[in-house]
Amino acid sequence: AWSRTERGRFRLLLWEQHMTSPVSKKLTRALKSQISVDIEHAKRKMTDLQSRVYTKWINARLKELARQRRAESSSGGKAAVRLCNDFLFDLRDGTVLINLTEAVAGKQLPVNTSDNKHSHIANIQEVLQYLDSLEIEVTANLAILINEGNETATLGLVWKLITFYNHKQLGREGFDVTLRRQLLSWCQNYLMSYRSYGVEVTDFGSSWKDGLAFVALVHRFKPDLMDIDRAKERSPNDLLSDAFQTAHEEFHVEPLLLPEDLELFPDKGQGTFNNRNMHASIGTAICSF
Questions:
Q1: Residue 114 DSSP SS3
Q2: Distance CA 123, CA 95 (A)
Q3: Smallest Cα–Cα separation from 191: which of 243, 154, 125?
Q4: Which alpha helices (DSSP H) does the chain contain, by range?
Q5: Neighbours of 114 (CB within 10 A)
Q6: How far apart, in Å, are the Cα atoms of 206 and each of 182, 272, 275?
Q7: Cα 255 from Cα 258, distance rounded (Å)
Q8: Roughly what angle, to the nearest 10 degrees, separates helices 179-190 and 276-287?
Q9: Nearest 10 degrees: Cα torsion 282, 57, 155, 176
């Protein structure tokens, strides 16, 4: 009779033979390929979401700038503010980016209106040089990447502008990469008393998916506008729609997310998809409150 060790070695040998068979290798490759496709599909959805959120945020700032310019028009008007439809394309010539920088940092920069690649890159470089003076880190070839519509580079630059703007709104100067952690801590402190209602914020992903945290955030500032006691009886879609609409009407918060956007995130207890696009999208929306 074989010992336990010998039986284990025999089973391992059979498993190795099975895994090295041509059929098994083909199945393994197919499985790995499908997993890779699923992961890339999920990442693409998150990046698309981040692009939509950033476009809405950009337009919210540009609308503020347009209102400011209309108010100042009697004293010699400035150029009209063009809104952003596809920010990867619309930021390429640098003119929208210059307006966005003025809206975010209050600095009016010169615009090169010539319609050629060299002038477009010069406009972007003008913005980057100013951001560098604010101690916002930018890379040497960033102007070229943005002019070429590089998605990663453009998303990264807009995130830095969002971070700077939010710090400025909070009364801080300069750029601080710890904003996300500070924002999470702020949410946890403000919503600590809502744990009995099922609200527990641990991240900028699954903690917000069921809508309870958004409802609690509105309730925290305007208790008469949200029925927190019956919130758990309602669907996530209803809660999110109600919270976003109320925040827009009462606090003039631009709705950066749609209820269906939150369906991309994992449910509570199923782990957090560690994707910076997801965290950036939720974090940007929370910063607007």
A1: coil
A2: 7
A3: 243
A4: 4-19, 22-72, 87-90, 95-105, 117-133, 142-147, 151-169, 179-190, 212-221, 236-251, 276-287
A5: 12
A6: 18, 7, 12
A7: 7
A8: 60
A9: -70
Contact 285, 256 (CB under 8 A): yes
Q: Which residues contact 220 (CB under 8 A, 6 or more apart)?
A: 190, 191, 194
Distance in angstroms (rounded) separating the CA atoms of residues 60 and 51 = 14
* Cα 94 to chain centroid, rounded: 22
Specify whether the CB–CB gap between 155 and 50 falls below 8 A.
yes
Integer Cα distance of 183 and 180 in angstroms: 5
Distance CA 154, CA 111 (A): 19
Residue with tokens 């709104």: 169
Rg (CA), the chain: 25
- Two tokens at 141? 């070839």
HSE at residue 197, side-chain half, CA atoms within 13 A, is: 25
Per-residue pLDDT of the chain (289 residues; tens, 9 = 90+): 556 666 666 566 655 555 555 655 555 566 556 556 556 666 777 778 888 888 988 998 999 899 888 887 765 556 678 898 888 899 999 999 999 999 999 899 999 989 999 999 999 999 999 999 988 888 889 999 999 999 989 988 998 898 888 777 665 544 444 667 777 888 899 899 999 999 999 888 788 889 999 999 999 988 998 999 999 999 999 999 999 899 888 888 878 888 888 777 665 544 444 445 555 556 666 666 6
A 10 A CB-CB count for 51 gives 19
What CA–CA distances, in Å, run from 243 to 116, 163, 197, 231?
45, 23, 16, 11
- Give the CB-side neighbour count of residue 268, counting CA atoms within 13 A: 14
